[in-house]
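Structure in, sequence out. Go:
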């Protein structure tokens, strides 16, 4: 699901990003992040919860949210093997991801993939072991993917959908779907939020009753 023109003042949010202390938070993300303030997440939840209920099923006890400013900064030649393949954000189908695009670079949005050998486009706790074994067997047979951001997913993945990542648009999807950022391997990756591939990446989960 996508929303165009999500923010009323996107340029102000980009300016706010320049004041953040970005850092490398996880080994999977090929760049740096800075958390959104809790009060910002609270305001967004009030706006987005009805849409999440409509699109992904009602959360009886409401939704919880975590979100970060994110900047892709890792040059293709320095990517770890795991960063060269489509990935999932977890195997829980109840977790919903959002990518809000706040850049006007030569880079794109987000692409979604199917793994050819298993036919899987999303992963669960039950299907993960078989998928992981299949990928390991492919790497053993054909070698590691080249040091580059994935584009069409060949030879082991098929790209089945992509969003273009227009400025101030957001895409929402279940976090267990295989996906990857659309990164132009020939374009620069600027570390300045005003010139780099800046996004806001959020995760939503149904709250658990006390």
């Amino acid at each position: 699901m996508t929303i165009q023109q999500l923010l009323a003042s996107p340029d102000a949010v980009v300016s706010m990003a320049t004041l953040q202390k970005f850092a490398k938070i996880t080994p999977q993300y090929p760049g740096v992040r800075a958390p959104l303030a809790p009060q910002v997440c609270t305001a967004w939840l009030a706006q987005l919860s009805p849409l999440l209920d409509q699109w992904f099923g009602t959360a009886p006890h409401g939704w919880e949210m975590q979100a970060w400013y994110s900047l892709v900064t890792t040059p293709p030649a320095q990517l770890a093997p795991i960063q060269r393949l489509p990935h999932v954000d977890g195997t829980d189908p109840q977790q919903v991801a959002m990518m809000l695009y706040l850049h006007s670079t030569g880079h794109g949005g987000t692409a979604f993939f199917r793994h050819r050998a298993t036919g899987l486009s999303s992963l669960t706790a039950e299907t993960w072991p078989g998928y992981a074994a299949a990928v390991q067997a492919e790497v053993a047979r054909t070698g590691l993917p080249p040091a580059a951001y994935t584009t069409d997913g060949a030879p082991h993945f098929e790209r089945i959908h992509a969003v273009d990542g227009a400025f101030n648009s957001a895409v929402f999807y279940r976090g267990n779907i295989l996906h990857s950022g659309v990164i132009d391997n020939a374009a620069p990756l600027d570390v300045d939020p005003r010139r780099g591939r800046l996004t806001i990446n959020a995760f939503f989960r149904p709250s658990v009753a006390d």
